[in-house]
Design brief:
The protein is an alpha+beta fold. The protein contains 11 helices and 6 strands. Helices cover 71% and strands 11% of the residues. The longest helix has 33 residues.
Length: 293
């Protein structure tokens, strides 16, 4: 694999940046249309609803519980094991609790340990806090990069980061997967992973700008991306394989979370190679230099 990357040292990534822009724009439009037409399948955390905790004797599997709920016509629910051997069933507001309790009874006797309701006010607060968490993370990243590099580089990185997060959210909309607080946490992890790749490339660009004074920025960026390509791809590939395995084998709850990792790693890796540095190049050439001239 390393030999392959050495043979590909002189790829002209900046030469194909407009094709990368076109692909990114197409994906963004598809995501925007999906969000506008379908919206997001918001979970109990954001819509309100009911939480049931039950204990079966003998214990029943979450797969069997899902089957009986689906057969009874319950559509909006989550089923989860706990470390104490109980089962958590989360229902959206419009799901009748009596119907669910009767369906659970068909599997055998159970003890109802807890029944809690999350109202619209609380779910609205959770939505607001989730949005603030994402915006605060992006704002913090912007300030850090502006301090470590310069404002133009920070702008390019944050635009690429927003691009990555928006595409992951669009993927949830397209597939109809549920978006809950766990997914928001996963989005923040994906954002951190994506910006980490970008910072590695930017750091190499800055180093090469000092070493190769007088070389035009486009050439320096191409050299830097080629130098960091093996690290970027190998790290992303390793993480992707682990995430894909957990997505395929982790069960419904974990699979829903890992979906953001699978999509985010692919999108984040490609944007750190083709989008972030390209945005910096075009901002500098089209906006910064004309003002200085």
């Amino acid at each position: 694999m390393i030999i392959l990357f050495k043979a590909m040292r002189q790829l002209d990534f900046m030469g194909v940046r407009y094709y990368a822009y076109a692909v990114s724009l197409l994906l963004l439009v598809i995501s925007l249309l999906s969000l506008g037409l379908k919206g997001l399948n918001l979970g109990l955390d954001f819509t309100g609803g009911t939480l049931l905790e039950v204990r079966y004797t003998p214990k029943q599997s979450t797969a069997d519980i899902r089957k009986v709920l689906e057969r009874s016509g319950v559509s909006a629910f989550q089923v989860q094991d706990t470390a104490q051997g109980t089962i958590l069933v989360r229902l959206k507001v419009d799901e009748p609790r009596d119907k669910v309790l009767r369906a659970l009874k068909t599997l055998g006797d159970y003890q109802l340990l807890r029944m809690e309701s999350i109202g619209g006010v609380i779910s609205g607060e959770l939505r607001q806090k989730a949005l603030w968490a994402i915006l605060t993370a992006i704002g913090g990243i912007l300030l850090y990069l502006a301090y470590r590099f310069e404002p133009v580089w920070a702008l390019g990185a944050v635009l690429a980061l927003a691009h990555d997060v928006f595409l992951v959210v669009g993927a949830y909309s397209l597939t109809g997967r549920e978006v809950n607080l766990d997914v928001v946490a996963a989005l923040l992890v994906v954002a951190g992973y994506s910006i980490s790749d970008t910072v590695v490339v930017f750091d190499r660009i800055r180093e090469n700008m000092r070493i190769r004074k007088g070389t035009d920025l486009k050439t320096v960026i191409n050299i830097s991306i080629n130098q960091t390509l093996s690290r970027t791809v190998m790290t992303s590939l390793t993480t992707f394989v682990v995430s894909l395995t957990m997505f395929l084998l982790g069960g419904p709850v974990l699979s829903n979370i890992m979906f953001s990792f699978v999509v985010g790693i692919v999108v984040g890796t490609l944007s750190s190679i083709f989008v972030a540095s390209a945005l910096v190049l075009d901002i500098k050439e089209r906006l910064v230099r004309p003002k200085l001239a």
